[in-house]
Design brief:
The protein has 157 residues and is α+β, with helices and mostly antiparallel strands. It folds into two domains: 75 residues, OB fold (Dihydrolipoamide Acetyltransferase, E2P), CATH 2.40.50; 45 residues, no CATH class. It is 34% helix and 29% strand. The chain has three helices and five strands; from the N terminus they run αβααββββ. The protein has a five-stranded antiparallel sheet, with no helix packed on it. Strand 2 and strand 3 form a beta hairpin. The chain is elongated and about 75 Å long. This is Glycine zipper 2TM domain-containing protein.
Length: 157
């Protein structure tokens, strides 16, 4: 049972947050966005560090405590095993959350039509970018994502 709970916790944690340009949060749907044209100057792979909200540690502590306490019939030994299980579970849960919410991403440097340069980091999405690509920057609610400019980049690329 503890294994199933751990798997469910990992699945839940991995869905908590993303910087993917292909995932739109419900609050951003049907909002008017600002759009700006730009050209990709450079792109490099980066990693967006995973989150440490405490949910992973808390979930791991509960699962570890239950698993540890259930291993013996001696009440004192059961309590000690429960505490040890909770500590180990918390450490493992934190690590699972941190690595489960980590994302491969790109740092994309673009030049706007007015000559200004901007750098953005976003998770790897369905579109691949290369220097010289015409792109659009879509800003909604203070967050910006980069997309290929559909008028400048034919579907077949």
């Amino acid at each position: 049972m503890a294994g199933a709970l751990s798997a469910l916790a990992l699945i839940g944690l991995s869905a908590c947050s993303t910087t993917s340009p292909d995932v739109i949060k419900p609050g951003d749907a049907q909002r008017l966005s600002q759009v700006a044209d730009a050209i990709v100057i450079s792109i490099r792979p980066v990693v967006v560090e995973g989150s440490q909200s405490g949910i992973g540690g808390g979930t791991g502590a509960v699962i570890g405590g239950i698993a540890g306490a259930g291993g013996t019939s001696n009440p004192r030994g059961s309590a000690m095993a429960g505490v040890a299980g909770a500590v180990v579970g918390a450490v493992v849960g934190n690590a699972v959350e941190r690595f489960g919410t980590r994302e491969d991403a790109y740092e994309i440097i673009v030049q706007l039509t007015n000559g200004e340069r901007r750098a953005l980091v976003q998770a790897q999405g369905n579109e691949a970018f290369k220097p010289g690509d015409a792109v659009i920057l879509v800003t909604t609610g203070g967050k910006t994502r980069v997309m290929l400019n559909p008028r400048s980049n034919p579907a077949g690329r």
